[in-house]
Specification:
With 162 residues, the protein is α/β, with parallel strands linked by helices. The protein has six helices and eight strands; from the N terminus they run H-E-H-E-E-H-E-H-E-H-E-E-H-E. Helix content is 28%, strand content 27%. Strands 1, 2, 3, 4, 5, 6, 7 and 8 form an eight-stranded mixed β-sheet that branches.
C-alpha cells in the first residue's frame, strides 16, 4: 500500500524536517496550480515522470515556468530517448496518480527504480513547493529539507540546469 500524506508528514516529523501544508482545490496541471497557489510563498514546481528507451525511470523536477526540452535532456542526464511513463507505471512505482506527481512520491519507490533529476536553479532557492502525494494540497519545504528527505529514501538526485 502506498504511503498516504499522513505517512509522509510523519516521515518529515521523524527526520526533523519542517514543512507547511496548504489545502486548495485540486490542481492537475501547472495552469490549474497557478489558479490555486495564490499567496503560497516559494517556488512552485512541475514534475515529469519519464521512461527512457532502455526502460530506466526518471523524475524530472523543475520550476513550473521552466520549459523542459525532452530532446536535449538525455544528453545532460545520460539517458536514452525519453518519453512519458504511463499512469499504470506511475501508480505501480511511485504510488500516485497523474496530476499528483511529486518528489515526495519517492517515499514509495522502495526498489529505487526512479532517478530524480532536480533543476539546479530550483535547488538554490530557499523554499520549494510540491503536492504531498495528493493534488489538493501544496507542501512548502526548504531545499535542504528536500535533500534530507531524498537521502532518507535512498535516492541520489542528479542536479542539472534544465
Amino acid at each position: 500500500m502506498p504511503a498516504s500524506p499522513e505517512d509522509l508528514f510523519a516521515c518529515f516529523d521523524h527526520l526533523g524536517i519542517s514543512v507547511e501544508t496548504h489545502h486548495h482545490a485540486p490542481a492537475f496541471t501547472v495552469e490549474q496550480g497557478n489558479e490555486v497557489w495564490g499567496a503560497i510563498p516559494g517556488i512552485h514546481c512541475k514534475n515529469l515522470f519519464l521512461k527512457d528507451a532502455k526502460g530506466k525511470l526518471w523524475l524530472v523536477v523543475a520550476p513550473a515556468h521552466t520549459r523542459v526540452d525532452l530532446k536535449t535532456l538525455p544528453g545532460r542526464i545520460g539517458s536514452a530517448r525519453l518519453s512519458f511513463g504511463s499512469a499504470q507505471l506511475l501508480g505501480e512505482v511511485l504510488g500516485v496518480e497523474p496530476g499528483s506527481v511529486t518528489p515526495f512520491a519517492l517515499i514509495n519507490d522502495h526498489q529505487r527504480r526512479v532517478t530524480p533529476v532536480l533543476d539546479a536553479w530550483m535547488m538554490a532557492q530557499p523554499v520549494l513547493n510540491y503536492h504531498p502525494l495528493r493534488n489538493h494540497m501544496t507542501t512548502s519545504i526548504a531545499n535542504d529539507g528536500l535533500r534530507r528527505f531524498l537521502a532518507h529514501t535512498g535516492h541520489v538526485a542528479e542536479v542539472v540546469e534544465l
